Amino acid sequence: MNRIEEKFKQLKKQEETALMPYITAGDPTLGFTKKLIKEFEASGVDMIELGVPYSDPLADGPTIQQAAQRALSAGADLEQIFGLIEEVRTEVEIPIILMGYYNSFYKYSLQEVVSKAEEVGVDGLIIPDLPPEEAEEVEKFKNGDQLSSIFLLAPTSSEERMELVNQQSDGFIYCVSTLGVTGARNKLSSQLQGFLARVRQHSDQPLAVGFGISAPKQAAQVAKYAEGVIVGSAIIDRIAENLDQREEVMLKEVSSLVKRLKKAL
Ligand SMILES: O=P(O)(O)OC[C@@H](O)[C@@H](O)c1c[nH]c2ccccc12
């Protein structure tokens, strides 16, 4: 069992839902990301989705696009991100899921990405634009089961797609709550409950829901139907609003939101 599976198992026993923040690595600097990962673990976060900044992030709204811009201007690249994970892994046990668009991994070489990820202590990979039909592209390079591959489903996914994603995913399935791009919203989709019920007919893996979740109240609602709640843009907004402050202030702002979210789960 890898770190992700263990975490979900433990949370199930405690009847808790996982809080899974997304942040862009290197926003605004890699040094800050390292501090934030430690702060997350200390604040009760269950797993971290660490994004590789990319210049053309198709599925991302303005908040994450700007985070990627900040990280890229600070020079964050995949090599340094692996270095950061290697360093922080000596200090934290929290599962780290590396998320990046196919192109940024392809440029580095998928084989290298998989072996580096395993070497530095990454626990899962999400490549949102890698279709589950192509899962083998990554699978063939894995050694053992340390590294989970997580695929996405959306409310528009067909039954066949759900079947395939269940076969190709391990760790959990990422359920996109609404169509469109990432970004904090103040209402949950009315379709969410029905969508997750459909996914459950094809899978008994943990389901984590992301896209548009910004407040503890929404998180609590999602937690009724899912094993994990993913929050990206709302957290990154706290960073963006405090860029002119000292790092300690940014850390405090983020951790106060994260603690309120976790309390709701
Ligand atoms: O930002 P939001 O709306 O809270 O959604 C999570 C999301 O940011 C994160 O999982 C993510 C960031 N970039 C993505 C690209 C595709 C799918 C998912 C993502």
TrEMBL record:
SUPFAM superfamilies: Ribulose-phoshate binding barrel. Pfam families: Trp_syntA. The keyword Amino-acid biosynthesis applies. Pathway: Amino-acid biosynthesis; L-tryptophan biosynthesis; L-tryptophan from chorismate: step 5/5. GO terms for cellular component: cytosol. The active site is at 49 (proton acceptor), 60 (proton acceptor). This is Tryptophan synthase alpha chain. It comes from Acetohalobium arabaticum (strain ATCC 49924 / DSM 5501 / Z-7288). Belongs to the TrpA family. Its EC number is 4.2.1.20.
